[in-house]
Amino acid sequence: MARPALGPLYAAARFAGRLVPWAALVLGAAALAGCAALLAVALPDAQSRHDAYARAVPCAAGQEGQEGQDGPDCLGAARCTVATVHIRHTGKSSYYWADLTCPGASTRRVPFDGDRPLLRTLHPGDAVTATSWRGKVVTLAAPGGTPAQRTDDDPADAPHDVTVASVIVGAVGILLVTVGCVELRRRRHRRVRHAVSPS
Q1: Alpha-carbon distance 70 to 103, whole Å?
Q2: 185 phi and psi, to 5 degrees?
Q3: 150, 167, 163, 165: which is closest to 53 by C-alpha?
Q4: Which pTM was predicted?
Q5: Residue 1's pLDDT band (boundaries 50, 70, 90)?
Q6: 3-class secondary structure, 106
Q7: 3-state SS, residue 175
Q8: Alpha-carbon distances, residue 58 vs 71, 89, 144, 183, 197 (angstroms)
């Protein structure tokens, strides 16, 4: 039985191989552009939120409990009840959040980046104190104030997180651009060498 011709497959493989350095350059440039956007836009915004949060004072009477992105720029405290607690591990990913029932508000889902020190101890029906800022719960605490746990909406680490993300994206971009340039240079030298070599 005759084998199928491998010519088209070989040609396709060679064509794909020629595109690899250019693809690395394009992806690297996109990553560097993303890094620049993080540093130019996301980092100043994160720093602004961090500074505003650091200056925030407790809300006056009547300001607490407002919802949404346009909530007060002060720290509101509300006594809430835990509706459900979610601690899930799926493969390499983990998900943590609690659903709260607070006075004058619908059930609120509060995300965390881990289950310590508070989330793992909570059960439905437990009373907690939710501290909110700009309409988001930033800290959850047991009665008495301890233990307390920061939520994913706490802006205290926002500048650090954006900086780390920009460093990672920038490093990937530099690596891809370097790989693309080195490969193109290597291929150019190989073509030159073949052109001057005696037949």
Answers
A1: 19
A2: -65, -40
A3: 150
A4: 0.71
A5: very low
A6: coil
A7: helix
A8: 13, 36, 17, 59, 79
Please answer whether residues 166 and 39 qualify as being in contact, where contact means their C-beta atoms are separated by less than 8 angstroms: yes
Residue keyed to tokens 């509706």: 83
Residue with tokens 């005696």: 198
pLDDT at 106: 73
Q: Is pLDDT at 124 greater than 80 in this prediction?
A: yes
CA-to-CA dists, residue 155 to 68, 127, 160, angstroms: 16, 24, 10
Separation of alpha carbons 152 and 99, rounded Å = 14
Q: Is the pLDDT of residue 5 over 60?
A: no
Report whether pLDDT(65) > 50. no
Structure tokens at 9: 């497959």
How does strand 108-112 pair with strand 127-133?
A: unpaired
* Tokens describing residue 162: 């954006």
Residue 123's identity, in one-letter code, is: H
SS3 state at 46: helix
Tens digit of each residue's pLDDT (9 = 90 or more) over 21-31: 888 899 999 99
Q: Is the pLDDT of residue 160 over 70?
A: yes
CA angle 76, 78, 79 (to 5 degrees): 160
* Token pair 């350095």: residue: 21
**Among 121, 115, 101, 124, CA closest to 150:** 115
Give pLDDT tens digits for 83-118: 999 999 888 889 999 999 988 767 889 999 999 999
Contact 22, 180 (CB under 8 A): yes
